[in-house]
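Quick illustration, no need to memorize.
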Amino acid sequence: MMRCVLVVRCVLTFLVFTVVLSTSARANDAELRAGVKRAIERAQEYLVSQQLPNGAWSERLGVNALVMLALANSGLESDHPTIVSGLKALRDFEVFPDETYDISLTIMAYAAVDGGKANAGRISALAQALEERQRPGGGWHYKKAGNGSDNSCTQYAILGLREAAHAGYTVDRSTWRKAQDHWLRGQIGSRDSVTGAGWQYGALPDGPASGSMTVAGIGSLVIIDSFLKDDPDDGELDCCASSEEKEIQKAIDAGVRWLGSRFSVRSNPGDGNWLLYYLYGLERAGRLSGRRFFGDHDWYREGADFLIREQMAGTGEWRRTSPGFESDPLLSTSFALLFLSKGLA
């Protein structure tokens, strides 16, 4: 009888503890969502306030496209005056873009507004230009001219082509194939390693991997694989994974393990710079692969909590003191806003 009483007490204690934890978790979730919503609204207000009378934010096309992408993805409607004038400013740029980042981000900005319907022709022309700029080895670099490629430009080319495809443009299957080979060839280390294998900025696996380039590799391979599976070479859907598909999944899993064993939202693992650029890539890799965790880390919860704390109280912007483009609050705020809004969706 005494043992029965003890068992009942233990069960009741466990149930009470579970209810308390569950209630606490729900409260924490509600608090986080409220904090994210406030951070998004303040970031939107900051970016809207920085728009120039001509609808642009900068003389640089890529900056305007990134800001537009962030605002559209964070919930500003297509008929919002900022979106309307921002789209006009993008269309009014006199010179057809030559740089991979500019082309890719402009595609993504157009596609983010009503699925790109109003700018389908422009998206197609830009996507075709992207395909023409692909290097024989499957990667991309800054411009069409020249040799070599890098994983950052290649990441954005893949993101741009994904949005173009969803907007109705048909990406050549060979483009996806070559890009897939680029990422598989460039992974650093053994895919069987317990701590995984990542990617670096350069196309060849001859240097230390970084978080920003590893999430680029994960996200890109997930995107490419989704399009190749939707349109197999023989025109039929396979019931079983091929050895090639298994190798692709192995590469993705190795990248996930690399990131999980070195995870941080406060710094770019293996690099230290380009934090907000890395966080947007982290969001893309996490969301597109359907993962909530990298290792034991809830990437969105940890990243959102960090960004909420880092947002400037007075203005709603994010500004990094590290060298490079993240010292520009337009870019930093756009990357942070993309992480918060797309990860929350």
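The chain has one domain: 35-344.
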